[in-house]
Sequence to fold (571 residues):
Amino acid sequence: MQKLVDIVAGVTSGSLKASAVVEEHLARIGARESEIHAFNLVTADQARVDAAKVDEDVKAGKKVGALAGVPIALKDNMCTRGVETTCSSKILQGWKPPYDATVVTKLRAAGAVIMGKTNLDEFAMGSSTENSAFGPTKNPHDVSRVPGGSSGGSAAAVSAGFAAASLGSDTGGSIRQPAALCGVVGVKPTYGVVSRYGLVAFASSLDQIGPFTSDVRDAATLLEVISGHDPMDSTSIPQPAPSLVAVLDHGVAGMRIGRVTDLPEGCEPDVLARLEAAFDALRNAGAIIVDIKLPSIQYCLTAYYLIAPAEASSNLARYDGVRFGNRVEAADLNSMYAATREAGFGEEVKRRIMLGTYALSAGYYDAYYGKALKVRRLISDDFARAYEKTDVILTPTSPSVAFKFGSKTDNPLAMYLCDVFTIPTNLAGHPAMSVPFGTGADKMPVGVQVLATTLGEQAMFKVAAELERSL
Amino acid sequence: MAEKISKETVVKVSRLARLSLTTEETERMTAQLAGMLEHFRDIDALDLASVEPMTQPYPLKNVLRKDVELPSLDRDEVLGQAPSAESGRFRVPPTIGFDV
Fold:
């Protein structure tokens, strides 16, 4: 598969035509998309127009951007002006946003070519894309298995070569887990590093946009472009984006790598074996392995599945059939709201709205939501203590390799357990990324997760690059 | 923590959430929510009395912008995406005269 950085170099120098790159990717989409279903919408015509424009600019000697001619897919929960944005939900089907998300504006300004909108679990709630109202995405490595979720379409699009890179959103692991299951790199940056303006909100204190790519250098390159302060997002960190590509070759000599001694149980042996191999690789490269404890992360599922649904129940109140999306007509306003939401939301979304509404309701707020916020603090404090002793932490990304369709759909809690290693990061607001690191059961990809503290992206990328080099 | 969630509570919560769940959905939701809330009891054992709640991951305060007029969304484009609009406004069914 063509690397993002090679496309940029080729297109910028004129040795490669952006139009040819786009056609190659469209050809792969044509050959395999009907089987994979990575996309809700392929914007082939616009992609051809945008690629031709890049080629014209190069020919005319104009300066082109840092992503000139790179085909990029967007998770279908990022607003694209005039282009359908559905969140894989019936309630938004047909909706064309009146504005672009900040990341979309940045990608376009950098010369990227947007290939389309990728499938997800409805409103990003799920770990397999089985909750999409438009049918699941298949894992390109084995189509009988899930690609992970919720950004399963974005992960599959890169894995199948439909796009050189893609963007996803990560609320509890929705970038890193599908990246691991599809054998690609996936990054969740520090909360506030990438603007959320135009990202359809799921849980506002946890959501963060990040890249999927086929290698670490591509991820660093793309993340540098989409990062940075945005006045349109009041939670955006008012600092310049850190330089990442520059540190990739620094190595890890002397760096401290945390090994969690009280990791939650239930991980497949093959996945744990790959984690051990990762520690060995870093040790061989001169890093120091440090044992750390994170005693409170055993409570992360409880904290997350109270906080995220609580925020979601509030955020999703806007889907009421008034300003956008679909409406089921009824005699009065309240009946219209209820009929619209009943018809428009899928089962998992309703379940989380119910759970969140309950956790926030009078009489239960202190017992559930209030307590969960305190547990969130404990988890954050655990990390703070750990990062006094270590620079990064290594864990599995997902407890298992990609699982078969239908194997977890009857039991919501079993599905929620897929996120046990990724959720703590979101609660703390830290960065973390999944790096492909060999295979596990049935030759399916395994990802190793590199975690760092707030704005610790440089340390994280140094270690990720070293892991990739060691393979 | 609270007692096991009842079907009556689920019906009340569904009304608060503006969801008109079917009878079958209410039954299934009651069982599933009860299972989840049972799992969530693991935090009951923690002593949280002196712990500050954490509401956001990055400590920013009072994020304000200058009070100047900025370009806004195009009204016709916004209304064009509404299920129903009329004379520059969103149109909704009657809001009063019915039981809530």
